[in-house]
Amino acid sequence: MPKFRIGILPLAAMLSIAAPLSAQASITDTVANFLGLGKSAPADDIPAPTADAPVTVTAPGSITATLDLSDLTPSLPTTVVTQLTQPSVETPLHKLFCVEYARALTGLAIFGDAKYWWERARNLYARAATPAEHAVMVFTPSSRLRRGHVAVVSAIISKREIRVEQANWQNHGEIDHATPVMDVSARNDWSKVRVWDMRSQAYGRVYAVSGFIAKHPVQQAAND
Prior knowledge:
Helix content is 22%, strand content 31%. The protein is α+β, with helices and mostly antiparallel strands.
């Protein structure tokens, strides 16, 4: 019998080489079982792999690896990740005022201090109570904003949050990029907002807003 086994093993090796790769394991197992060198486990003893249960695989040489099938199961993200430009401050070559920066970005032909923009836009440009991209947000004059202030909407984040481009908000002639602005009005009508403060890294005091001036003329807005 030992001589017979010695003769079978080379034959198994030859058959494995000649057979397709998918059939090599079957041939080897058949020969090993015939010689009494291996034993196939009953089907009932093999647990069915699930996405929640890890599967242990024993490789030749008694190397054991554990595969977590949950890592291989495709799934949708639980949240939508939006890539937003981080707020930043730019120092221009010369001091900029909010009105000249807003004109440069939008092309609006409105002149004078920001406190006059809302009325001077009447019958010239479309005015709205809610923000739109590229529209000019007009702050209502107050004791803290004696000359008013304007900023250009660069992105709509949600019903309560936008990003704006503005100049001279800190009264240093600087340019603030991607500044967050949050609506804090009771009716979500954008009549009151808080502006992100770069120095404290928090939202500042409440400011009143007159509305938003669209860059399109009134006639074109009416046709739309």
